[in-house]
Design brief:
single chain, 162 residues
């Protein structure tokens, strides 16, 4: 799916249509976002068809890229995590601009830049080994990857006093 999204983004970016160029930027972000979600879910669950894998994959919040501390792990792999985080954050910003800026601002969008950045980000994500995947996935779970999105409960996560 991820490579298919990138190919679709390339196809749309090559057309002389502002709407398709905007959509290409959006699709490039989502390709990288899906690669990230896949990496996190793969880090903890082996079977991609299991309900827990799907739940974990679906509950990664887009705002996680704004929380630098989640990507800080006590070893030299942090640079790769930080590069992934900043790249995904930049791609998300470009997607939001492409989605919400007025047509008069379209001249500032370059879908090819977003697609190239997405491809590079996906390469970094795919290079993360299983231990690093697990470490980052656990860090996101423990330190606030908004894993409760979609929950119907509004209860506090603080333990009750008995």
């Amino acid at each position: 799916m991820i490579d298919g999204l990138l190919n679709l983004a390339e196809e749309l970016a090559g057309q002389d249509d502002a709407v398709k160029k905007r959509k290409a930027i959006s699709i490039a972000y989502y390709a990288a976002f899906h690669a990230f979600c896949e990496m996190i879910a793969d880090g903890l669950v082996e079977d991609p068809t299991s309900p827990i894998y799907i739940k974990l994959y679906r509950h990664i919040d887009h705002g996680v890229f704004n929380r630098e501390k989640i990507f800080q792990i006590n070893d030299n792999k942090t640079k790769n995590f930080e590069a992934i985080r900043t790249s995904l954050s930049d791609l998300k910003q470009k997607r939001e601009e492409a989605d919400y800026f007025p047509a008069s601002a379209m001249h500032q969008f370059n879908p090819h830049d977003s697609i190239s950045k997405a491809r590079n980000t996906i390469e970094l994500i795919r290079a993360i080994d299983k231990k690093q995947q697990r470490d980052l996935a656990l860090n996101i779970l423990v330190n606030g990857g908004n894993m409760n999105r979609g929950s119907t409960s509004n209860k506090s996560s603080k333990p009750s006093k008995a």
